[in-house]
Design a protein that fits this description.
Chains A, B: InterPro entries: GntR_C, TF_FadR/GntR_C, Tscrpt_reg_HTH_GntR, WH-like_DNA-bd_sf, WH_DNA-bd_sf. Chains A, B: It comes from Pseudorhizobium pelagicum. 2 copies of one chain form a homodimer. Helices cover about 70% and strands about 5% of the residues of chain A. Chain A is mainly alpha-helical. Chain A folds into 2 domains: about 60 residues, Winged helix-like DNA-binding domain superfamily/Winged helix DNA-binding domain (Arc Repressor Mutant, subunit A); about 140 residues, GntR ligand-binding domain-like (Four Helix Bundle (Hemerythrin (Met), subunit A), Up-down Bundle). The first copy, chain A, has a 3-stranded antiparallel β-sheet. In chain A, helix 5 packs antiparallel against helix 6 and helix 5 runs antiparallel to helix 8. Chain A is globular. Chains A and B meet through helix 1, helix 3, helix 4 and helix 7 of A and helix 1, helix 3, helix 4 and helix 7 of B. The structure holds a DNA duplex.
DNA sequence: GTCAACGAATTTGTATACAAGAACATTGAA
DNA sequence: TTCAATGTTCTTGTATACAAATTCGTTGAC
């Protein structure tokens, strides 16, 4: 694995999570190779890695396609994400230090700024930083890795989520409550709030389905 | 990815989780290639995949080594595993059908048989089947995948766990309680029991440390 | 007109060749 | 004796070549 292979992996992964390569799209080896100006070998190695983490589906002798999950599967992924986030929040409530608290509060403030400007893209970006700050505050490196990884994997399915009416305001209000619970050291409350914050339920299930049926 | 590459990936992964390739061991490409009678290309592809899921560490230009985690990291992995198992158990309590229940009871019985024969290896094997039955009963395909994957990853660190005094009997007793909670539909209780069943705590933390310091 | 079968062309999987960087040993000086 | 420098060797990373399989198009029969 050299810089090329690693870079390629990131490039393709980025293309997937940003929607440039939508779910179901075929990833042609020679096409990618010419596009990035390399041979097929590093492209294949990059695809193998993405296949191992579930971002692309490798069909033997039939090429790679961007992983395409059905609604139930995506729902299940959000379920697990909610649980991992809840765990991170609970640990953060008990373990966070001054630096962690400062990072979380700063991220919350940036979320507030974006919400006031009604800038959905900016909020989306700051939201990610906010959640990562909580992962870090959990002081569990492995949990942080798992959360970041799953978060990335869910990005293609969450991109449109925030565009639904009032979602940004509701999300921000929930963020405030979560921060209160964490800084107060209330692990149980932080868990419940985060699980609810992430979980796909009620109306949002319909929203999710809508994003999956283009 | 052909049969060779896929097989190779499984072979090496198996070698890692069975301890044939212990943590920290260098995985030489040509050595593996000659051993399995193939060229370096499929070996590299297999290693890439194992690197992507964290079983081996890929150091650029310096080869691959079996991932070697420090005690804290392993502890964190068990923490996450406990949470995922708890989640699976909770879902299983609410969602299990007749087939699921039968599979869990059958697995429990096999655990009992192994325990009566004092057969640690057999118990280790049946224990895995028991836990997988719970994953399946959660009726969340994604959660099941995550649990199986993390379970495999922890195998090298759990192999010796069951050998400590009385661990098998305690484990079996916990299994019985867990089954009671699941079949009774008591999700909350199943969660608590499973979290405790998996979590590394008290004396077992010392046991874990012991297995990590050879 | 539809479907099946056969053949060409594209594409994947593996091996090999080559280039570049890292590990290692040998030699020399302090 | 120890340490540093340099050259050799070994290993990794990438490209290319070739083999095998799948896909697609064409042709033919019903």
């Amino acid at each position: 694995m050299s810089a090329t292979s690693q870079t390629l992996r990131d490039e393709i992964e980025n293309g997937i999570v940003t929607g440039e390569f939508p779910p179901g799209e075929r990833l042609d080896e020679v096409q990618l190779a010419t596009r990035y100006g390399v041979s097929r070998t590093p492209v294949r190695e990059a695809l193998m890695q993405l296949g191992a983490i579930g971002l692309v589906e490798m069909r033997p002798r039939r090429g790679a396609v961007v992983a395409e999950h059905g609604p139930e599967r995506v729902f299940e992924m959000f379920e697990v994400m909610a649980e991992l986030e809840a765990m991170a929040g609970g640990l953060a409530a008990r373990r966070h230090g001054d630096n962690d608290k400062a990072a979380i509060l700063a991220a919350l403030e940036q979320c507030q700024n974006a919400a006031e400007k009604n800038d959905t893209d900016q909020y989306y970006y700051e939201n990610e930083i906010f959640h990562r700050a909580i992962y870090t505050a959990s002081h569990s490196g492995f949990l942080e890795e798992q959360c970041v990884s799953l978060h990335r994997r869910l990005r293609p399915y969450r991109r449109l989520q925030l565009r639904v009416r009032n979602r940004m305001k509701v999300s921000l209000a929930e963020h405030c409550e979560i921060v209160d619970a964490i800084t107060a050291g209330d692990a149980q409350k932080a868990r419940l709030l985060l699980r609810h914050h992430i979980a796909v339920q009620g109306d949002r299930f319909g929203d999710l389905l809508a994003t999956l049926r283009p």
